[in-house]
Amino acid sequence: MDFTTADLYDANEGKVQIAQPVFLSFGLTKKFYGQIYTIKCFEDNTPVGNTLRNENGKGKVLVIDGGGSLRCALVGDLLVTAAIKNEWNGIIIFGCIRDSAAINTMEIGIKALQTNPMKSVKKFPGIKNETVHFANTFFHPNEYVYCDEDGILVSETALI
Description:
Low-confidence stretches: none
CATH class: Alpha Beta
Distance between the termini: 10 Å
Helix content: 10-25%
Order of helices and strands: HEEEHEEHEHEEEEEE
Structural class: alpha/beta
CATH topology: Glucose Oxidase, domain 1
Number of domains: 1
Number of helices: 4
Number of strands: 12
CATH architecture: 3-Layer(bba) Sandwich
């Protein structure tokens, strides 16, 4: 994967969005990109688990709008293992992960706000594949997201 978000921004200024720099990086893969698939949920990772366990993510990045909650984690090492098995390119979470030490040994890229050992509850169903907005950025399903050590860039069209 030979790209940087800085170079992509410079070549496409005015045509791309840059997410606010509020995310930490997890996993061994520092650069990832793909077509956006979204989930909106709040402190309930049921739709996240169903998606990562049951859907092939080849060429896709799962973008999870967890409402910015820091009260519990939406993704842990078991779901990351499922994501790798089902070929997801990466995960962006406007919320927390847990099992970060284990995740940091895995071949995947993840952006999240923070870590929290608490698991999510199971009482608020989520919404899949609708536009979500966080970090001053709109993430539209089927558009494209690019992540590296410098940040997150979103484009209506494929840039690579």
